[in-house]
């Protein structure tokens, strides 16, 4: 009886605790999202009245070469960003996790691209990556015919590197704080038992920070799928569609061509793909994460 | 598990290498690794002191031909000071509210059973993934009907409840599920109610995660471009990322020298805040002994 | 007391932004700096004259039409505003611009003062959907110092002798490249997405273009291919023309010649070199320059159309266009030919303005597009990325492009 009462009280209190956020999310995100799913069933140019088209937009997606191309670009971009970002962030965090006079300055340097406004950030990269700019001529001296950002073969990879350079500071800081939470006593004990530094890292440090790794992994995957402005200002999805990710394709349809019904269909595909991926990761976390309730 | 004598020692980073030669080598290595990260921002600082001719004439030259002229012009010719204030105000409201709502909702998701909890949590995960551009139109119609367009209100509310908010709730929940239940029980024995347990036991143990949430919230609020673009019509109401697009000639051609000077002013406070807070931030994260 | 006033002040700051006052009319623009100040001044004068309160709303140029579309879609359209050239066909086709043909009968407005060619973009049959405020032909900016160093005759001199054609243009560019090390000539803007500004003049002057008379894709015609051939030669053989992606800009002083609208002169105020303006070179099909336009339009979903038309008449009147002409080349003939306009820019002497700008208006063209322009533009941008690569198979690329563009 008493436990029943307690459960009811917990339910009431839990509901009240979550309510302010849930209410806002419902009104400002979920209802608009439902409306957008509805829009994906219409032909709507934003500029005139919507007309109901059923699943015609989705049928068109299946035939749309740019959309199909953007699926591949999105996959490469996302995998590239996540792999490179997490690896570099972990390496940097391990390197910056030393006690050294002036280490704060080095940490801030790695973080500094994060705070740079995107207009300034894209301008310097446009200078650096000019066809005859310093980076390309450097590579040309090595015998490569490089035009990194304007050659469809190299543009996506270049964009991935630039984006990781910009964003990796944030993940580095989070990893750094996780690394500092690993008690050195455990590592020293392992070392006394004859473990190599790599074994200590692999079997003690990494498992200890695995919850952080998982969180950062999830956030980075979602972030990579949503990267828009850096692509838009650097390449606009070009050259020849080589950097048109799903979100760029959606933006182009919706806000450049004003085909908002069609853009909503692309968005719906993107949304469900990400949701599926996230739920999958959620399932996998038990296998990946060392300890959690 | 908690902050006891053992983990107090854990707060320390890797020990200093023993020999000075190694220390020197480490410095060289650090400098080399940090170079590609720090060069762009150094270039931005340098270019903000150049004229447009200087920036495009020799983009990597050291000719700072404009001195501080760009900076004075940014303030004299444009409502930049006012726009700065707008961004600060947006930040000052949205960041603490995001932290508070994320903490309460995250706590409820982690620790309390209530009907619809799991559905609501999946919806929160979903909200993390919704790009702002996608839901802009229905949101705009809602705010128009509330007569709140061309104000900072939608900017702030969308910061709190959209992707940033959802991410924050998610981070808080992940943190709260790792805290031992015994803590709450001890609090209840001491006569604290749910609110008391949350306020006096759980929140103080959450400072590092709150710091992470704060970093995300500050960066997202400070850099938000799309929503201000859609909602704000007056130059005097604009926030900084939008303001950075307004240093143009009469037909819209960019004055890069002014844009870069303004960019410096946008980046500098965040960078300084990080430099000053990084030690506290990184160590407070580590100190809590949270596993995530 | 303090506790009560602080939230109140905060609320008013958030909601009203300090400046209250109901607007009777909303005017939307992407103007910046002095141009915006002038428009605000005009709005105020109109308010003082008529009692109608006009509010000027601004959006960055890059996202101007996006914001406008969101406002229209949400039932929050402004009453009147600027419309960019690229968006005109789409906005007309979707019935978002009000028909202004009644202005033709308004003697005081005197629509005849506008050259017929300057209204072509805005007309559908007898209907008129906007009034241009800027009618800006491309001119050639050239760096006098570099011409002197290379021992070349100025383009104006060559023009006077009737020798200023694309062959001599290419030669001059090459000479500058070889003798000064600076780039010879740039036709397109820095942003590859803005390819239409510049490239079209070259295409048209050699008999090509984006569309032919029947609005079929014309990018793969012999004339167009000749023009692309010239540019590819200059980019990759002579190396006298910066490739797309290159950031060499004219105001940096390391570029001999550059095509842009006359308003670009505003960015050359502090240039550390001598420069001049000249007509574009002549091609096998004539000396055709491109007119860039932007105009005022009344939005048909605005709430106050009649008043908006009145404000448009005020803005585009002879007196006020003479004032905006300081920034935007005026489409009104009477203003364009006035000595006040010709002598307004101390950096460009009246004689140069006459030769480079006014004498070229007869052969100037506006890019006529249709409703699919926004998509076609995107496709063409993508294929130009491929055309301007060394060793590109131009014909094959453009054949494919035209097939897709015609299939839209």
Q: Layout of SSEs?
A:
The complex is a heterotrimer of chains A (293), B (292) and C (408).
Chain A: H1 2-39, E1 42-43, E2 51-52, H2 56-63, H3 65-96, H4 103-115, H5 118-128, H6 134-141, H7 155-180, H8 184-192, H9 197-208, H10 210-226, H11 229-234, H12 246-256, H13 260-288
Chain B: H1 5-10, H2 20-47, H3 52-57, H4 69-77, H5 80-111, H6 117-128, H7 136-145, H8 153-161, H9 163-176, H10 181-189, H11 194-202, H12 207-223, H13 226-231, H14 240-243, H15 256-287
Helix pairs in contact in B: 4-15, 5-8, 5-9, 5-12, 6-9, 8-9, 9-12, 10-11, 12-15
Chain C: H1 2-15, E1 25-29, H2 33-50, E2 54-58, H3 64-73, E3 80-84, H4 88-93, H5 116-119, E4 123-124, E5 127-128, E6 131-143, H6 144-149, H7 155-160, H8 166-180, E7 183-186, H9 196-205, H10 222-237, E8 255-261, E9 275-278, E10 289-298, H11 305-315, H12 318-324, H13 333-336, H14 339-342, H15 350-356, E11 364-365, H16 373-387, H17 394-406
Parallel strand pairs in C: 1-2, 1-3, 7-8, 10-11
Antiparallel strand pairs in C: 3-10, 4-5, 6-8, 6-9, 6-10
Helix pairs in contact in C: 9-10, 16-17
Keywords:
heterotrimer; A: 293 residues; mainly alpha; MetI-like fold; two-stranded antiparallel sheet; 13 helices; 2 strands; 75% helix; 1% strand; flat; B: 292 residues; 0% strand; disordered N terminus; disordered C terminus; palmitate (chain C); signal (chain C)
Textual characterization of the structure:
The complex is a heterotrimer of chains A (293), B (292) and C (408). Chain A is mostly helical and 293 residues long. Chain A has one domain: MetI-like (MetI-like fold, Orthogonal Bundle), CATH 1.10.3720. Helix content of chain A is 75%, strand content 1%. In chain A, a hairpin with a 7-residue loop joins strand 1 and strand 2. The mean pLDDT of chain A is 88. Chain B is mainly α. Helix content of chain B is 70%, strand content 0%. Chain B starts with a helix and ends in a 5-residue tail after the last helix. By secondary structure, chain C is an alpha/beta fold. In chain C, 41% of the residues lie in helices and 14% in strands. Chain C has 17 helices and 11 strands. Chain C has helices at 2-15, 33-50, 64-73, 88-93, 116-119, 144-149, 155-160, 166-180, 196-205, 222-237, 305-315, 318-324, 333-336, 339-342, 350-356, 373-387, 394-406; strands at residues 25-29, 54-58, 80-84, 123-124, 127-128, 131-143, 183-186, 255-261, 275-278, 289-298, 364-365. In chain C, helix 9 crosses helix 10 and helix 16 packs antiparallel against helix 17 (394-406). Chain C is globular, with a radius of gyration of 23 Å. Chain C starts with a helix and ends with a helix. The chains are: A mainly alpha (293), B mainly alpha (292), C alpha/beta (408). Chains in contact: A-B, A-C, B-C. At the A-B interface, helix 1, helix 3, helix 4, helix 5 and helix 7 of A face helix 1, helix 2, helix 5, helix 6 and helix 7 of B. Chain A: Its main location: membrane. Chain A: InterPro entries: ABC_transporter_permease, MetI-like, MetI-like_sf. Chain A: Belongs to the binding-protein-dependent transport system permease family. Chain A: The chain crosses the membrane at residues 21-47, 67-92, 104-124, 155-179, 200-225, 263-284. Chain A: It is found in: Cell membrane.
């Amino acid at each position: 009886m008493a436990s029943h009462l307690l459960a009811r009280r917990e339910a009431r209190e839990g509901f009240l605790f979550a309510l302010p956020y849930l209410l806002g999310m419902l009104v400002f995100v979920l209802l608009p999202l439902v409306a957008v799913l509805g829009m994906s069933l219409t032909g709507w140019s934003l500029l005139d009245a919507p007309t109901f088209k059923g699943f015609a937009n989705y049928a068109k997606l299946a035939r749309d070469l740019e959309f199909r191309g953007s699926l591949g670009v999105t996959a490469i971009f996302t995998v590239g960003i996540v792999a490179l970002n997490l690896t570099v962030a972990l390496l940097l965090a391990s390197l910056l996790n030393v006690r050294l006079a002036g280490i704060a300055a080095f940490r801030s340097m790695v973080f500094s691209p994060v705070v740079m406004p995107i207009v300034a950030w894209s301008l310097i990269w446009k200078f650096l990556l000019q066809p005859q700019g310093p980076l390309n001529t450097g590579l040309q001296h090595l015998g490569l015919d490089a035009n990194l950002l304007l050659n469809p073969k190299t543009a996506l990879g270049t964009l991935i590197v630039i984006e990781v350079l910009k964003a990796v500071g944030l993940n580095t800081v989070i990893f750094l704080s996780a690394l500092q939470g690993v008690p050195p006593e455990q590592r020293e004990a392992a070392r006394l038992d004859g473990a190599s530094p790599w074994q200590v890292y692999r079997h003690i440090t990494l498992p200890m920070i695995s919850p952080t790794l998982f969180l950062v992994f999830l956030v980075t995957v979602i972030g990579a799928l949503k990267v828009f402005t850096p692509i838009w200002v650097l390449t606009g999805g070009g050259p020849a569609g080589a950097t048109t990710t799903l979100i760029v394709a959606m933006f182009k349809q919706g806000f450049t061509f004003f085909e908002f019904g069609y853009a909503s269909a692309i968005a719906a595909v993107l949304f469900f793909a990400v949701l599926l991926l996230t739920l999958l990761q959620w399932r996998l976390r038990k296998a990946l994460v060392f300890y959690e309730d | 598990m908690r902050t006891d004598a053992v983990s107090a020692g854990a707060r320390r980073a890797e020990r200093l290498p023993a020999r000075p030669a190694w220390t020197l080598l480490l410095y060289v290595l650090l400098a080399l690794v940090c170079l590609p990260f720090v060069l762009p921002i150094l270039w931005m600082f340098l270019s903000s002191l150049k004229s447009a001719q200087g920036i495009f004439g020799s983009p990597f030259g050291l000719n700072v031909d404009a001195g501080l002229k760009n900076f004075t012009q940014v303030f004299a010719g444009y409502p930049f000071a006012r726009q700065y204030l707008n961004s600060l105000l947006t930040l000052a409201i949205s960041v603490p509210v995001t932290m508070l709502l994320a903490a309460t909702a995250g706590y409820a998701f982690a620790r309390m059973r209530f009907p619809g909890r799991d559905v609501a949590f999946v919806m929160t995960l979903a909200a993390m993934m919704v790009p702002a551009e996608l839901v802009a139109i229905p949101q705009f119609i809602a705010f128009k009907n509330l007569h709140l367009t061309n104000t900072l209100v939608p900017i702030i509310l969308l910061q709190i409840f959209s992707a940033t908010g959802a991410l924050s709730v998610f981070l808080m929940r992940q943190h709260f599920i790792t805290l031992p239940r015994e803590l709450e029980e001890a609090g209840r024995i001491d006569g604290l109610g749910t609110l008391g347990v949350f306020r006096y036991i759980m929140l103080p143990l959450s400072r590092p995660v709150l710091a992470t949430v704060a970093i995300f919230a500050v960066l997202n609020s400070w850099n938000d471009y799309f929503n201000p673009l859609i909602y704000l019509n007056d130059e005097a109401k604009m926030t900084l990322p939008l303001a950075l697009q307004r240093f143009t000639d009469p037909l819209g051609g960019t004055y890069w020298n002014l844009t870069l000077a303004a960019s410096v002013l946008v980046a500098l406070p965040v960078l300084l805040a990080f430099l000053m807070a990084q030690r506290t931030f990184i160590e407070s994260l580590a100190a809590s002994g949270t596993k995530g | 007391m303090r506790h009560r006033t602080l939230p109140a002040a905060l609320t008013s700051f958030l909601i009203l932004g300090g400046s209250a006052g109901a607007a009777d009319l909303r005017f939307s623009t992407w103007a910046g700096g002095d141009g915006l100040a002038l428009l605000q001044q005009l709005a105020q004068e109109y308010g003082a004259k008529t009692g109608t309160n006009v509010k000027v709303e601004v959006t960055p140029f890059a996202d101007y039409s996006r914001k406008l579309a969101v406002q229209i879609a949400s039932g929050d359209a402004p009453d009147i505003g600027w419309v960019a050239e690229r968006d005109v066909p789409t906005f007309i086709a979707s019935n978002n611009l009000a028909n202004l043909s009644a202005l033709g009968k308004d003697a005081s407005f005197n629509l005849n003062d506008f050259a017929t060619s300057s209204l072509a973009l805005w007309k559908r049959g007898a209907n008129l959907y906007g009034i241009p405020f800027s009618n800006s032909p491309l001119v050639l900016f050239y760096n006098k110092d570099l011409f002197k160093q290379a021992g070349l005759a100025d383009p104006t001199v060559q023009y006077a002798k009737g020798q200023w054609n694309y062959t001599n243009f290419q030669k001059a560019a090459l000479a500058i490249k070889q003798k000064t090390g600076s780039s010879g000539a740039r036709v397109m803007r820095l942003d590859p997405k803005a390819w239409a500004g510049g490239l079209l003049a070259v295409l048209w002057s050699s008999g090509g273009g984006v569309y032919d008379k029947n609005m079929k894709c014309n990018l793969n015609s012999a004339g167009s291919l000749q023009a692309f051939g010239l540019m590819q030669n200059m980019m990759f053989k002579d190396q006298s023309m910066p490739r797309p992606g290159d950031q060499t800009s004219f105001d940096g002083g390391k570029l001999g010649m550059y095509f842009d609208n006359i308003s670009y002169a505003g960015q050359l105020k502090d240039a550390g070199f001598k420069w001049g303006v000249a007509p574009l070179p002549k091609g096998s099909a004539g000396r055709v320059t491109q007119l860039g336009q932007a105009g005022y339009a009344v939005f048909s979903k605005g709430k106050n159309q009649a008043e908006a038309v009145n404000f448009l008449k005020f803005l585009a009147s002879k007196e006020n266009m003479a004032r905006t002409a300081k920034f935007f080349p005026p489409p009104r003939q009477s203003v364009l030919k006035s000595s006040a306009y010709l002598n307004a820019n101390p950096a460009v002497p009246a004689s140069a303005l006459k030769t480079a700008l006014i004498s070229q208006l007869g052969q100037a063209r506006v890019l006529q597009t249709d409703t699919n322009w926004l998509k076609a533009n995107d496709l063409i941008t993508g294929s130009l990325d491929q055309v301007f690569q060394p060793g590109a198979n131009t014909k094959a690329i453009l054949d494919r492009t035209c097939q897709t563009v015609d299939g839209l």
